[in-house]
Amino acid sequence: MKHLIDIQDLSVEEIDELIKVANDIIANKEKYSPKCNGKKLATLFFEPSTRTRLSFEAAMLELGGSVLGFSESSSSSVSKGESVSDTIRVVGCYSDIIAMRHPKEGAPLVACQRSTVPIINAGDGGHNHPTQTLTDLLTISREKGRLNQMTIGLCGDLKFGRTVHSLINAMSRYQGIKFVLISPDELKIPDYVKTNVLDKLGIEYCETKDIEEYLPELDVLYMTRVQKERFFNEADYIRLKDYYILNKAKLEKAKKDLTILHPLPRVNEISTDVDDDPRAKYFEQALCGKYIRMALILKMLGIE
Ligand code: CP
Question: Is the N or C terminus of the chain more exposed, i.e. has fewer CB atoms within 10 Å?
């Protein structure tokens, strides 16, 4: 039994295969509709979510399976003091696969050690979000026709933004990738990501506070929200929350075939006047999330 806790749990070949299956699902939806008949997905969300939980549930329903679970810890027995490990062992009696989100970094890793069914990390604190990364990779490959030879700008909260950490981990394994890391000083990418991934693999990157400095060179611009829920001090959040606001005027300097992504939810960091720009692909990205999760559920349940 294999779990998905970190994007590094998947080889590049496995990621490419998931993207291939997701594209086949998009092209042949009816072929996949009975694949998970009789199977159950449990979604255990100890932290709020719209896209991840609902796209997992839509994915399982479109594969012919069923879903159960909870969307806040207060409606589970964790609120009475039950441990995550015990919760997972019990839910494994009622389901075939579990997608779990938790505010504590490492909680899904602890959970999978006692689990009798495959566990998917649906986001753990400011750490990792591997299925968002699979979503991002499917979107980039569909928009660009490749996952190599490109310059990717990552902008916003690079400190607490778990989607950024997982995306750097994944894209660094493809050839010819350069990163432009755009953040205020307080929200720079953590040193462990630089040391363990960028420096270790010899990836070209630069850091800047200015979103416009490298904009003309970017093939992909990945905007992120300042992660309010990870701040200890509300005054710091208020000071930093509108540091970047991407708007139509700024985009005049960008490539005509730039792809603008955002894992969503968005707060103010992309002005709504960008939504109609053909380069804005964040809603297509949210849809890709359902298809890649369908491919992932099939793989983890061992269904052809
Ligand atoms: N992208 C993402 O994880 O969104 P949710 O928090 O709504 O699941």
Answer: C
